[in-house]
Amino acid sequence: PMEWLCYYLSIYKDHNPDERRYYGGLVEY
After folding, report:
1. Gap between the Cα atoms of 1 and 22, Å rounded
2. DSSP string of 1-29, one letter each residue
3. What are phi and psi of 27, to 5 degrees?
4. In whole angstroms, what is the distance from residue 28 CA to residue 12 CA?
């Protein structure tokens, strides 16, 4: 579902600055 995805991304981005670049093109978090 979208809920866990947002939850997963929020944590991932908070703990992994590199992931922010990875998801930067997909999600403008």
Report:
1. 21
2. -HHHHHHHHHHHHHH-HHHHHHHHTT---
3. -130, 125
4. 14
CA distance 23 to 16: 11
1-29 pLDDT, tens per residue? 667 777 777 766 555 555 555 555 555 44
9, HSE (Cβ side, Cα atoms, 13 Å): 15
Whether the CB-CB separation of 13 and 23 falls below 8 Å is answered with yes
Count of residues in the chain: 29
* pTM as predicted: 0.31
User: For residue 6, what pLDDT is reported?
Assistant: 72
